[in-house]
Specification:
The structure is a homodimer of 439-residue chains.
Chain A lengths: L16 H20 L3 E2 L5 E3 H4 L5 H6 L2 E4 L2 E5 L4 H10 L8 E10 L11 E10 L7 H17 L4 E7 H10 L6 H8 L2 H15 L5 H11 L5 H9 L6 H19 L7 E3 L10 E10 L9 E6 L13 E7 H10 L14 E5 L6 H4 L8 H10 L4 E5 L1 H6 L2 E5 L5 E4 L1 H16 L7
Parallel strand pairs in A: 1-5, 7-8, 12-13
Antiparallel strand pairs in A: 2-4, 3-4, 5-6, 6-11, 7-9, 9-10, 10-11, 13-14, 14-15
Helix pairs in contact in A: 1-5, 5-11, 6-11, 8-9, 10-11
């Protein structure tokens, strides 16, 4: 028979069993932590009507989207979890209690040019809190606090959630008479990390057509750094010149205070005035998260406050705040950096029962059908990485015991079956506390 | 602004929060039980090359498939989890340890005509054991044993796994000289439940063109029923007439014995000679699972033994046995029948902390930002179905305690915060043992 090559499309992640178990463990931690903070799980279709999915329309998104006809229907695959959330909240408005706190972990699709570390199908893991008409600023601090807890439970230590406020930025540009150019300026300032202050200044003058002293103002502002208290103190010097700026500063002060109250250490969050995120969506606090030893990776978790989740679907004012972990990319990066722990149990089971005789008590009768020799059996246990092997030979049957072999240490001990279960359970519980990321 | 109606496509399930939590709970039970039996999780792309997905080609499947072009690529959405498994095992053959035991819970897509209870996007939850060249028959008993354990953990009681063997059927048709018509006969016999023996007999004579005595033979055979021991005894009377039949009977005897050894009660599994499943794929034991009080629903979990998982991709002989739960359909049916328990905790959290003052100790400082009045706060706790409310007012702050209100009983008690945590934890642990299905 002619064979078809069993290939997987490029840009689509498909893992070997042990790696898949690490990803599953990460997803389990996300589900548990998000639930602990009172977020309820949501699942929306992967396929939506193109009209619904592209209600906002335009831009880069439309080029990347998987869109196709099925019968008379114009369909598309979701490219993020925010648009489906907007559709869901607008469509189920009457059934929901607000603030509506939901998490969603699901695959999204973007037909980007395939390249190493870029995926066309990838998991996002989102949390959002949606208010009905209004939403307390407390939520803008709680969201990064949940991310801090999530990363900590995953075992990630060297990360920093960078926080800024769009009102602060918009106010700053307004007080300098640069509101119209704010978009262009932010896109240029975004290159600070890559090309440095001097080149950014030149671009601001040459391409954005700013006066040298105005571009100097921008760079001075963006250069504000130090502890969070120091940054806030420097920002106080701009107070009183623009109402929006002042409001943004007040919000930043409150969010910073609450983040401390939520127990997030200062080393894991920092005010960073260079963070802006998208231009037309976020309206208050914005977040990016960097791995401090790998800034080249970019943000692994981003989001912010928005005033109008579902304006394309409903007249209801639905402000919210949310954040998204690019899970597939984060997993890929951690794996590439060797930061995934092999301590995590990745065997499909804790112990493999290896009967060494043909005829045993009914309890293990089923297992007698195995016909391989001892060495092959132990080899299988070892190959699939099972931590324990339970050996049942003639001797064990006669003595009414089993032999428990620790596959890591090679140690082997006879004991009654019931004791063996407790012994394996205790050892596995200790191991199950291992974190999936060793960073 | 012109609004787009936030509709969800017909045939795509999208649940309210509380229902979603029940589905998540079911998925959690499936993951845990499958893992307990040593199945390793697998995740494959939703999108595959159409050439790979349709390697087997033809039939009903091809009409229902979601297939589309993206750039130069001819793509399709997976319509089951078996073809991706075949692709995976063939493609990763060198990296896997055999027998390879995997589970996969994922969405699949079939553009069927939309009708009530029929879904175009639905979850399947599959387990398979794949051997390299050979596979012990023990696995053909373990697979339904895992399903028994899974359904029992879900809380489902009134179900029966119906077991048959394709060799037995093929052998029976051979000994009657009806091998060529076996396909047609099986399709006709499949209608027994619906139209009864007399009409099936008439169809066998009129449409399959069988002689009346031969059709009588078929109906006599299919009518064999009773306890598993009785059925096996009746089948012994056919022994010696066809080698394939005898082999099938031996396998059925072994599978029945092992199922007992695995602790599956006879009320939950039955030999049923009318079960055949697909014509060209299964080669040994086959399964269907009915809800005994709702036979009209059809099989909620089906599968069987096959000899050649991946023949379209590789020359390797990869025999296996697997079973699939149609999770979305099962959930829909349970929900329609009122069999989903509301005992299961479906609140997004166990307790809601309700600060009743503006200024509190740092530990709850964050929560002080809530500005609503008491009634509205308690109403929110009630609306989202939280089991406990923790009230922190002036009195509580002064006394160094919190008030814990059981939202089910209305009972309210003051205690130190630490004690409250233990008290809520104990109550929730008791509740968490509630099963998701109350049948």
């Amino acid at each position: 028979m002619a064979k078809v090559t069993p290939r997987t499309l490029s840009g689509f992640m498909e893992l070997p069993p042990k790696e898949q178990m690490k990803l599953e463990k990460m997803m389990g931690v996300l589900r548990d932590t998000y639930s602990l903070y009172g977020f309820t799980p949501l699942d929306t279709p992967v396929i939506e009507s193109a009209e619904v999915l592209l209600a906002k329309g335009g831009g880069e998104t439309e080029k990347q989207i998987y869109r196709f006809q099925k019968g008379e229907s114009d369909l598309a695959l979701r490219f993020d979890l925010t648009v489906p959330l907007a559709k869901y909240v607008a469509g189920h408005y009457g059934e929901l209690s607000f603030p509506f706190r939901r998490y969603q972990i699901g695959k999204v699709y973007r037909g980007e040019r395939a390249q190493r570390g870029r995926f066309r199908e990838f998991y996002q893991a989102d949390i959002d809190v949606i208010g009905d008409g209004k939403l307390d600023i407390l939520n803008e601090a709680e969201i990064p606090a949940v991310i801090y807890e999530t990363f900590t439970r995953l075992g990630l230590k060297k990360f920093r959630i960078r926080v800024n406020n769009r009102k602060l930025l918009n106010g700053f540009y307004a007080m300098n008479g640069m509101s119209e150019k704010a978009g262009e300026i932010m896109r240029t300032v975004d290159k600070l990390d890559k090309i440095g202050a001097q080149k950014v200044k030149q671009l601001l003058i040459d391409e954005v057509k700013m006066l040298p002293d105005k571009s100097e103002n921008v760079l001075d502002f963006m250069a504000i750094c130090g502890t969070n208290a120091e940054v806030l103190e420097r920002l106080e010097m701009y107070r009183g010149m623009d109402a929006t700026f002042d409001q943004g500063l007040d919000e930043l002060i409150v969010v910073t205070k609450y983040l401390q109250d939520f127990g997030v250490p200062e080393e894991n969050f920092a005010i960073d005035l260079t963070i802006a995120r998208g231009l037309d969506y976020y309206t208050g606090t914005v977040y990016e998260t960097e791995m401090t030893e790998h800034p080249e990776i970019g943000s692994v978790c981003s989001g912010g406050r928005y005033d109008n989740l579902a304006e394309y679907y409903t007249d209801k004012q639905l402000p919210g705040v949310g954040i998204s972990i690019g899970l597939t990319r984060l997993f890929y990066v951690l794996s590439e950096q060797g930061l995934l722990s092999d301590e995590v149990v990745t065997a499909p089971c804790d112990a493999l029962v290896l009967p060494m005789t043909e005829d045993l008590a009914p309890a293990v009768a089923a297992a007698t059908a195995l016909k391989k020799k001892f060495k092959a059996k132990i080899g299988y246990a070892d190959k699939i990485g099972v931590p324990f092997a339970v050996l049942i030979g003639e001797d064990e049957v006669n003595e009414g015991v089993v032999s428990v072999k620790n596959m890591q240490t090679g140690e082997q001990q006879k004991m009654p079956a019931r004791e063996a279960a407790a012994c394996i359970k205790a050892a596995m519980e200790a191991r199950s506390r291992a974190k999936v990321i060793r960073a």
